[in-house]
Amino acid sequence: MTTAFYTHPDCKLHDMGAGHPESPARLQAIEDQLIASRIDQLLDYRNAPLALESEIAQVHGAAMIALIREHSLALASKGGQGGHYQLDPDTSINAHSWQAALRAAGAALAATDAVLAGEINNAFCAVRPPGHHATSSLSMGFCLFNNIALAARHALEAHGLERVAIVDFDVHHGNGTEEIFAHDPRVLMVSFFQHPFYPFSGAEPEGGNPLNVPVPAYSDGTVVRQLVTEQWLPALNAHRPQMIFVSAGFDAHREDDMAQMGLVEADYAWLTRQIMAVAAQHAQGRIVSCLEGGYNLSALGRSVVAHMKVLAELE
After folding, report:
1. What are the domain boundaries of the chain?
2. Could you give the CA distance from residue 315 to residue 312 in angstroms, rounded to a whole number?
3. Catalytic residue at 195?
4. Of these residues, 14, 133, 172, 195, which one is catalytic?
5. Which of 59, 74, 37 is nearest to 136 (CA)?
6. Which CATH fold would you assign to the domain 3-311?
7. Does 130 sit behind a cis peptide bond, omega within 30 degrees of 0 on the bond before it?
8. pLDDT tens, 149-199?
9. What is the pTM of this model?
């Protein structure tokens, strides 16, 4: 089993200010835990390339792309001393954000190409900024471009796949991904998320193809395993995806104080095993997973290791 790990130093340069939970330290915490777990040398490390603007435009509007590009490059022209440009109350960009966003999207696209070419079995993209809140026209919720949506669209349009699935296990509803694919029957999106909670959407799905399962605060792994078994897996098997994309958020961990759910590393490993089984049955094992949330650094690193061990069959 060959599992690729896509990342790039540029993703650590995007910064939204002191004390912001979506910090460069998140990627360092993941790398540290991979080393501590001794699985780092068993992964195929790959540098994330830069996505092309034409590739970003397959999902996002020209005005949205230009806003990020122009303001980030304007800050860069001031020698990186220009501070931040605020996109919404929670989301800002600095001089390096344009480059980082292109790397994050580029990782997802390159991983998709490599998996479909048979170079690797699956991949995890340890990139930031994250993506699943970004809609077709709006960056929000710490997200600039929707990395997973770009990868899924690329698999459909550039590679000619007929059916794909997006599995979103972040504690927040992936409103951007849902909006982008709401009326595309080729894409099945399954998700759970704490509700009511930011971005206060998802309880009434948009279009006919998302399977959203809102859960109350303090739900734990028992609740999640039941909903996956009873709702996600029948829908995924009925859809028969030819590739699976994962919005891998680890902020439903019980140690993450950005939310109030109760998952632990064993739950993320179990979730990954279920995804692997569906992929093995319908998709020739093809999976691309991209980092979304997860803000307690220790819990994030440990949870990504649990996810990676299953992907790479190193349990």
Report:
1. 3-311
2. 8
3. no
4. 133
5. 59
6. Arginase; Chain A (3.40.800)
7. no
8. 999 999 999 999 999 999 999 999 999 999 999 999 999 999 999 999 999
9. 0.98
